[in-house]
Amino acid sequence: MLAVFKLGNSVLKANSNLFERTGKSTVAIFKQLVEMFSFVGETAVAIAKSVIEPKRIRWRPILFNIRSAGFDALPIVGLLSFLLGVVVAYQGADQLRQYGANIFVADLVGLSMLREFAPLMTAIIIAGRSGSAYAAQIGTMAVTEEIDAMRTLGISPQEMLVLPKLLALIIALPLLTVFADLFGVFGGMLMARNQLDVGFVEFLDRFVKAVSPTAFMVGVGKAPVFAAIIAIVGCYQGFKTKGGADSVGRQTTRSVVQSIFLVIVADALFSIVFSLLDL
User: CA-CA distance, 197 to 271, in Å (whole number)?
Assistant: First the structure.
């Protein structure tokens, strides 16, 4: 009886600890969501002020961020998109060859790259490349108390640090997505020629017929939303930095993980909405 009582007591303690940890985790997640929505609200207010008073917009930081987040990312985005197009065409080649449907590789590559892979992979690359940089930069400024000094001088951190990054990424990511579309389709064309004997002219002729402008706009239309998610999460995690250098690394890692997670969730929601709208 005593052994049974001890076993039951230990089970109750384990369950109690589990419930306690679950409750604390739930409260922490809810608190973080409230703080993030508050941060989004502050950023929206800063955007509204900039729209009302265009003189408040800082164009030089915006152009600098367009270069760092957009132009400097062209090589890695182009290379990975090219390889992704090659992989998609290669994986579909055997199945299409079995049914004598070689020409439909243009449908496979075109629709998959333009609608899904190009915007999603580009966003993931930028989340790891630029989103982490935003969190690290702002986090370092928070640790060295530069952000507190800006507030003391009456300078809004949102207008100085967040808006240039947000606007630059909203401009750069759709352009990077188009660039990824081109290289992804080009990679698919090369693989279609080598594996399925589909020439460039045949591929492009079928591509134009299979891929509508709507498919292209669906992919590009996702990019500004992904850009807003990456910029806001990166900047938010940077402002959350407290302590020393270890906190900067921790918040930078969180920004990448949360950005990629939210981008994938947003892409899934887009797929559901576009399916309901028959797009």
Answer: 33
Q: Judge if 65 and 49 occupy the same domain.
A: no
Q: How many CB atoms lie within 10 A of CB 29?
A: 10
DSSP SS3 for 96: helix
CA distances, 1 to each of 4, 5, 6, 15 (Å): 5, 6, 9, 21
Say if CB 112 and CB 88 are below 8 A apart: yes
Query: 45 and 148: one domain?
Result: no
Residue 203: C-alpha distances to residues 12, 17, 45, 209 (Å): 66, 61, 49, 10
d(CA 181, CA 217): 11
At 132-168, the pLDDT tens digits run 888 888 888 888 888 878 888 877 788 888 888 999 9
Boundaries of domain holding 25: 1-55
Token pair for residue 26? Answer: 């739930």
The verdict on 45 and 66 lying in the same domain is no
Helix axes 163-196, 59-69, angle to 10 degrees: 30
Between these two residues, 126 and 32, which has the higher pLDDT value? Answer: 126
Cα-Cα-Cα-Cα torsion 224, 230, 231, 235, nearest 10 degrees, comes to: 160
Do 42 and 1 lie in one domain? The reply is: yes
pLDDT greater at residue 51 or residue 87: 87
Q: Which residue has the tokens 């706009």?
A: 217
Rg (CA), the chain: 24
Q: Which of 205, 216, 180, 220 is nearest to 84 (CA)?
A: 180
The tens digit of pLDDT for each residue in 223-272 reads 999 999 999 998 888 888 887 777 788 888 888 998 999 999 999 998 88
Mean pLDDT over residues 191-201, rounded? Answer: 83
Residues 86 and 135 in one domain: yes
What tokens were used for 78?
């182009």
